[in-house]
Amino acid sequence: MVAPASREQVVGQRRTTLVSIAAAGLLVILKLGVGLITGSLALISAGVESSGDVLAALLTFFAVRLGRQPADPEHPYGHGRAENLGALGEAGILLAGGLIVAVTAIRHIATPSGSPDTGWYVFLVVAIALAVDLARTVISFRSARRYRSPALRANGFHFAADMAGSAAVLIGLLLVRSGFAAGDASAALVIAALILGTAARLIGDNANVLMDRTPAEAREAAERALTRLEPEIELVRLRLRESAGRYFADVIAAVAPGAAVIEGHEAANRIEAAIEAALPGSDVVVHVEPRRRGLDRRDRILAIALAEPLVKEVHDVTIYEHDGSTGVSLHLKFSADLALHDALVVAGRIEQAIRDRADVSEVQTHLEPLERPLIATPATTSADLDAISEIERIVIEQTGVAPRGTRVFDTEAGRIIFLTLAVGAESSLVDAHQLTGELEEQLRQQVSDVADVIVHTET
């Protein structure tokens, strides 16, 4: 679930919204009051628009308060989209106010009804309005970036339109004072256009979020972060959705079919870290699946065998090239309590699939039970001590040096021998494996009651 917003974030957004409400109320009184006294349609229009600001700011206040509620079982992604709904509501108020102002301005231009008073106090009111609009625009945008809040961002655009509208009022009144009678109504029409443009932008931005449209820049940032990962990740699918300025990522990545669970988990961790670095605060869910493209023959064989639910383990995959054809042998491990008939049916399906899909002419499978835990006790009897001496003699005879470590355990299946053997630093892995294989075979032949030999090599 989504983590709840911090107390500092909630308090900060609430404070910003309350300041906006107070500022909008002050501007309504100034613009409407002076506009009605002077007969300025531009000021009255700006006052009507600021009345919408009060309603919009109240709507933002409650939207932010709801949007920062923690996630719950019915809202696992949180309540952040309440802010987008609030921004849409604010856009609706802007749209209605803009249409009213536009119609009134057009009517005044078509049928002039005198010029407004342009005394000094009118310009003082406009100057105060500009200062207040500038301050709350800066505060809203700064808070929106800090708290990643669509509702506060919507307020910022709203207040920027107010500031542009106040500038239009100033220009209109200056035109009236210079003798252009329609300057006031023309300024009101400009204000209406600004209001409608802002409303259209808010509707477009927030409708896209509610429709789960992924911002192109966010997707590109996430994809760039994933392409830089080492080792390379095969991305099958990336889906992003936004809520209250936070991204939720749904990723499917492919790993090698033979990769262990821990390797797949590590790949998922690297994907999550990369996306969170590119899009801070993101909530990332990664699904890992076996790679199906670009596989070599061995990986294809592993993918086919491990796709069978009853197969617990696959090992000793060997590929033979002979007479222009390819053969494969592999060992399949099943649960020890599985019936042989059922294991044979699964092995038959695997063999046929390998022939069909891995370009192999012959397949041999060896069936094994999955090992059960063994009760092991350290070897302490005189016979065991004699066996350890014999083991060390054989190692010295075979390698020229004594083993670095020798441990023998007794189990119900027989003796288990653990050896630590030193080999030259220049030895290859193939040479070391061949040496340990020969040593294991000699120990099985010359030491009685040996169930298994495990040789660990080091330089």
Radius of gyration: 38 Å
Please report the total strand number as a whole number.
10
Regarding quaternary structure, how should these chains be classified?
Answer: single chain
Q: How many helices?
A: 12
CATH architecture of the largest domain: Up-down Bundle
Q: From the helix content, strand content and strand pairing, which structural class follows?
A: alpha/beta
At the third CATH level, what is the topology name of the largest domain?
Alpha-lytic protease prodomain-like
* Tally of separate domains: 4
| Low-confidence runs | 1-5
Binned strand content: 15-25%
Distance between termini? 50 Å
Strand arrangement across the biggest beta sheet: 7-8-9-10
CATH superfamily of the largest domain: Cation efflux protein transmembrane domain
What characterizes the major β-sheet?
4 strands, mixed
Categorize the overall geometry. Answer: elongated
Order of helices and strands: HHHHHHHEEHEHEEHEEHEEHE
Q: Helical content, roughly?
A: 55-70%
Give the overall average pLDDT. Answer: 82
CATH secondary-structure class of the largest domain: Mainly Alpha
Please tell me about this protein's structure.
By secondary structure, the protein is of the alpha/beta class. It folds into 4 domains: 7-209, Cation efflux protein transmembrane domain (Alpha-lytic protease prodomain-like), CATH 1.20.1510.10; 216-290, Alpha-Beta Plaits (2-Layer Sandwich); 297-369, 2-Layer Sandwich (Alpha-Beta Plaits), CATH 3.30.70.1350; 377-458, Cation efflux protein, cytoplasmic domain (Alpha-Beta Plaits), CATH 3.30.70. It is built from 12 helices and 10 strands. It has a 4-stranded mixed beta sheet, covered by helices on one side. A 3-stranded mixed beta sheet has the order 1-2-3, with helices on one face. A hairpin with a 2-residue loop joins strand 8 (405-411) and strand 9 (414-422). Helix 2 (41-67) packs antiparallel against helix 5.
